[in-house]
Amino acid sequence: MTIRVLVADDQGMVRAGFAALLDAQDGISVAGQAADGDEAVRLSARLDPDVILMDVRMPELDGIAATRRILGPSYPSARVPRILMLTTFDIDDYVYDALEAGASGFLLKDALPDDLVHAVRVIASGDALLSPKVTRRMIEHFSSRRPHARRTDPAFADLTEREREVLVLIAQGRSNTEIAGTLFIAEQTVKTHVGKVFAKLGLRDRVHAVIYAYDNGLVEPAA
């Protein structure tokens, strides 16, 4: 199955370079290119890509605002794309805002070509780009810097006790293998629990599970 990609970046040479690199890969096809966030929103609705490479800083509409529109309830397609944010900056407030908006990962623009191709494939597969340990460090960093009101999602009550344990362990940065060892259950059983947690809470991937857990006060940032 070919992964259809939309590249959104306001710098023409960067945009063309990413597109040429991805088009040359087996199983990846560049469906279109956008020069700003507004165009990315329009093309996403028309071209129905699997993955969008979205630059954080763009004129007219920035990448975070464009991500909110594309992943919002008014998006015209039932098959919502996965969004990989591109930035020239390392961890900062853009990261938290973008992930909160629904992006599935981050990649620095100076990443190696192989890293970009790998990131597109990971995002397209339905996973998040960030590893559990990186996710934990990043979210703890922002949780300690950005106070926000704790809330209790009514859907949380639908989780079984075991599913709640799994969610908390995900938020602590544990991999499926580590969760299996902690709870003394099979790794396949962990995968089943993770899938049920995501389905019940409407979560896209592990990154958003971590954000959910912090937002709902299930875990606290490290001191």
Automatic annotation (TrEMBL):
**Highest taxon above the source species:** Bacteria
Keywords recorded for this protein, A-Z: DNA-binding, Phosphoprotein, Transcription, Transcription regulation
Q: Which GO terms describe its molecular function?
A: DNA binding
One Pfam match: Response_reg
Q: Any idea where the HTH luxR-type domain is?
A: 152-217
Name positions with the PTM 4-aspartylphosphate. D55
The Gene Ontology biological process terms listed for this entry are: phosphorelay signal transduction system; regulation of DNA-templated transcription
Note the InterPro entries from the entry.
CheY-like_superfamily (IPR011006), NreC/VraR/RcsB-like_REC (IPR058245), Sig_transdc_resp-reg_C-effctor (IPR016032), Sig_transdc_resp-reg_receiver (IPR001789), Tscrpt_reg_LuxR_C (IPR000792), WalR-like (IPR039420)
Its recorded name reads DNA-binding response regulator
The beginning of the lineage is: Bacteria, Bacillati, Actinomycetota, Actinomycetes, Micrococcales
